[in-house]
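Weekly sync, protein design subgroup
Attendees: M.S., D.O., the rotation student, P.L. (late)

Item 1: inverse folding check
M.S. brought a backbone from last month's batch and wanted to see whether the design step gives back something sensible before we order anything. D.O. pointed out we never logged the input encoding, so this time it goes straight into the notes. Structure tokens as presented (165 positions):
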């Protein structure tokens, strides 16, 4: 039976699946991963992928802390360092969704000059994580395509087929 919770859980399963599939494609390229920044994107491929993973760390931290720890910019990490972080996020997102489902998740974001204080910020963080991941994965795929390299299929259709096969 489909429930609102199962739809959200599928969204985060797909979020991790897409990142891991993209990391697989980047790993297959080895040293031929383009280093240039395509105009209109965040930055070079590994820098963008690291930014995506770092942002998930921050969203997950916010699930339990109204004030974030100091941000550490990891620059451009290699695929081998990003993969275990994405895998760890999978269980952390599941834990956050468990807390949401039981009503025990209450996220408050303490305001700063660059954003307001937000009480009950759970929907904001869950939606932002999904949007942010897709936005940057699309930028990476555009960069791969512009370099005439193979672009992995990260569509929801592919995820559904892969998971339900």
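Designed sequence read out in the meeting:
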């Amino acid at each position: 039976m489909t429930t609102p919770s199962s739809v959200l859980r599928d969204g985060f399963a797909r979020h991790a699946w897409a990142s891991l599939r993209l990391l697989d494609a980047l790993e297959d390229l080895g040293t031929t991963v383009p280093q240039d920044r395509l105009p209109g994107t965040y930055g070079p491929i590994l820098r963008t992928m690291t930014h995506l993973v770092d942002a998930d760390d921050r969203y997950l931290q916010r699930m339990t802390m109204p004030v974030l720890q100091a941000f550490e910019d990891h620059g451009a990490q290699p695929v081998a360092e990003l993969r275990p972080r994405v895998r760890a996020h999978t269980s952390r997102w599941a834990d956050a969704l468990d807390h949401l489902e039981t009503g025990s998740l209450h996220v408050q974001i303490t305001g700063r000059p660059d954003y307001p204080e937000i009480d009950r910020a759970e929907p904001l963080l869950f939606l932002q994580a999904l949007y942010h991941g897709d936005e940057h994965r699309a930028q990476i795929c555009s960069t791969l395509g512009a370099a005439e390299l193979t672009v992995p299929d990260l569509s929801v259709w592919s995820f559904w087929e892969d998971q339900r096969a």
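Discussion: Helices lie at 4-29, 45-62, 79-102, 122-146, 156-164. The mean pLDDT is 92.
Action: P.L. to compare against the previous round before Friday.
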